[in-house]
Amino acid sequence: MDLITPDLGLLFWTGLVFVLLLVILTKFIWKPILTSVNAREQKISDALELAEKTKAEMVALQAQNENLLKEARIERDAIVKDAKETATRMIEEAKATAKSESDKVVAAARAAIASEKTAAIAELKTQVAVLSLEIAEKIIRGELSSDDKQKALAEKLAEDINMN
Amino acid sequence: MSLIYSAKRFFSLVAGILLFSTAFASGHESGEKKEFNVGEMIMHHIKDAHEWHLWGGEHGGKTIYLPIILIDGGVKTFSSSHFYHGEPATGHDHKTNEEVHYVKGVGPAAGYAMFHEKIYKLENGELSFEDGHAHAEKPLDFSITKNVLSLFMGAILILVLMSIVARFYKKNGPVAPKGLAKYLEVLIVMVRDDIAKANIGEHKYKKYVPYLLTIFFFIFINNLLGLVPFLPGGANLTGNITVTLFLAVCTLLVTLFSANKNYWLHIFAMPGVPKPLLLIMIPIEIVGIFTKPFALMVRLFANMSAGHIIVLALISIIFINQNMAWGGLSVPMALFISVLELLVAFLQGFLFAMLSALFIGAAVEEAHH
Q: Which of A116, A142, B19, B24 reaches 20 to 30 Å from B56, CA-CA?
């Protein structure tokens, strides 16, 4: 049956056309198309990779920022705390200093008062002694101003001695 | 598919039938007309021809007479009209004792005769027949037949389409495709990735991509062209055994020439098979080399021819019943099959390239035992 009998003429033309087509297409068509498509695919995959990398970098940067922020916050807290402590300590110290100073002043005052007092008492004592002496002198002088009186006194003194 | 092509040819027939039935009020056309032979009509349509029928009947129709090129003691070139408008002759079949009609060439075609689109040399001004076949010497026929012309147009179409795509990339570089490139790139990438890379392997597929692309688009475009019922299409090129034979042989040669040691080892000394068994294995493997492309050849031929036959048969329902009303049944069915054939056109191209890639892949596969 000639439906399934190959025909030489058609075989020749098919071969000729197909081989020519294969050569022309390969050389001038498939090569530029495939090159472009491959280049584009490379470009896309590169871009995707870059995007992925950038994303990761962003995440890292964000984490870093957060860390930095956290650190800053901690540092700030520490500084504030430190400052507070320092202030308190300074106040306390000032208070303490002031107190000790005032104590010292008070003590000094006390000491001064006490010494003044003692001095005054001693003075008073001397004065009293002088006065007493003067009084005694005057009295004795009075007693001894007349012979009678001198005799009475002597008698009295003798009496005192006698009694002993 | 030569759907509209055949429909056009028969339109005059339909018109004729209508005229007869109305003007002459159903008369004596049976005596005048040859009975409508579906098988003969279909076979005529799916086979090659030396003319390209455009429209109309035998008289007043339009037909392109294709050039005939014979090599018979020198190249002889003339129009096929010298056969189609040649001298009708009647021969005698020696076996069946029946009369056989053929045409003798006139003018430059003198000395040759055409029988069933084949050209024979006349012997003593006669052709002898045996069992319905002409029994005569044939000159080498390199004519531009309907299939050859269709082949040229298909090749030009592929070149034009693909050069548009190539020009786009040359001009724009590696950018997102636009226009025609957008549609064809999908197919190109499909052949590269799903056919070549998937079957041949990551490292070796590159070399075979141009071949697979060419074979895929050659089959796909020519299949589609065959579905077009009028001039640029209508020929049954990819449903022609010669074409599919050539394509299958190409795949066979590519496979054999790219086959590595491992491939031949598996054919002539299958590892792990006892020596006596090789006596059976070797012939089986050798036959296997040829059955694969043979299957390719038959698959494409049978699928495309079958599609053409079905559409023509469905259209013929109208002419068998000689009633236009049957068009209500046959046209939707033919349309359905035609749409199905669009899928088949793609599928057969895909399958041919796919299986070619599979065979090449098996031939270049490295041993991994």
A: B24
For residue range B313-344, list pLDDT tens digits in order.
999 999 888 888 999 999 999 999 999 999 99
Residue B60 lies in a domain: no
Residues B126 and B273 in one domain: no
DSSP character at residue B34:
P
Please say whether the beta carbons of B144 and B67 come within 8 A: yes
B149 residue type, one letter: L
**Long-range residue pairs from B196-202, CB within 8 A, at least 24 positions apart, any chain:** B196/B357, B198/B357, B199/B354, B199/B357, B199/B358, B199/B360, B199/B361, B200/B357, B200/B360, B200/B361, B200/B364, B201/B361, B201/B364, B201/B365
Give pLDDT tens digits for B210-233.
999 999 999 999 999 999 888 878
C-beta atoms of B43 and A3 within 8 A: yes
pLDDT at residue B267 in the model = 86
Residues of chain B numbered 42-71 and touching chain A (CB < 8 Å)? 43, 46-48, 69
Cβ pair B246:A9 closer than 8 A: no
Environment class of B19 (CB within 10 Å of its CB; exposed 0-12, middle 13-18, buried 19+): exposed
pTM: 0.76
- Listed residues B117, B141, B165: the one ending a domain: B141
Residues B200 and B319 in one domain: yes
Domain enclosing residue A70, as ranges = 8-163
Could you read off the pLDDT of B39-64 as tens digits, one per residue?
A: 888 888 888 889 888 887 767 788 88
ipTM: 0.86
Q: What's the whole-number average pLDDT of chain A? A: 90
